[in-house]
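The instructor's notes for this session suggest beginning with a concrete chain rather than abstract definitions. Hand out the sequence below and ask the class to guess, before any prediction is shown, which regions might be ordered.
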Amino acid sequence: MPTAILMEHVLPAGVIGPDETILDIRAYLVSHHTGLTLVDTGMASGGHALDQALANAGAAWTDVSEVVITHAHPDHTGALGHVRTSAPHAQVFAHPAEGLDDTQPFLDGQTVGGLRAFATPGHTAGHLCLLDEGTGAVLLGDCLMVLDGRLVRAFEQFTVDAAQAERSLHRLRGLRGARMLFSHGPEITEPWDELDVLLDNTKG
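After discussion, reveal the predicted structure:
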C-alpha cells in the first residue's frame, strides 16, 4: 500500500478564505519490485519531510527509481529540485501538458513503477490520477480533496477548467471500489458514496 508522507503548509489569509489556513499536503512512496516510486514532492523546497520518510521506511534516495508528478502546482513540485539532486538517477514523469522541464511523458493508460496513469484534466490541463496496480488504490492528486472530514472538489480558484474537471470526476467513477488516497486530507470511510452525492447534487 502506498505510504503517505504528511506535510503542512501555512496559506496566508485571503488565499482560500479570510483567515490563515493550514493546508494538509501528502506525497506518497510506492514500493514495487525494482525500487520505490515517489508521487509528488510537497511544497517545501528543502524536502526534509521526504528525507525523513525515506529514513523511516529504512530506505534511501538511491532506492527511488521514479518520481511521478500528478500536476505541476507548487504544493506538488516544490521539492522537485531537492529530489533531482538527491536521486539524480531517478526518472521524473509527468503529463506533457504540465510543462515541467526535464520530465518523461506520462500519458493516460501508461504504467510506471506499478502506477497506471488515469487522465483527469481540468484542475490542470494534464492532471493525472494514479492507479496502484499492486493494491488497487487510486492516488487522486487534486482531483478531489477532504476538508473537515468531507469529500470536496479542488479549490475553484486553482482549477483552470471547471467543466472539464467535472467530466473527469464522472470518469473517475469508473474506478469505483478502489481505495481513495488524497493529496489533501485523510482517507474517509465511504468515498465513492460521497462522490455519488457530490456529483448527483450538482445542478445543471
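Then share the key points. The chain has one domain: 3-200. The first strand starts at residue 3 and ends at 11.
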